[in-house]
Amino acid sequence: MNHSNNKIPDHIYIVGAGGITTYFLPAFIKTMTATTKDLPAIHIIDGDAVEERNLKRQLFDPSAIAKNKAIALVERYRDEYPRLYARERFFHPGEIVKNGSLLLVFVDNHVARRSALMACDRCDCTAILATNEYTAAQAMWYHPSFRGRRFDPRVRYPEIETDQSNNPIRPRGCTTQEALEVAPQLPIANLACAAYALQLFWFYFMVAPSLEEDSRSFWPIEHTNNFNVIQTRKEQDYVRKSVET
Question: Per-residue confidence at 134, pLDDT binned at 50, 70, 90?
Answer without folding.
Answer: confident
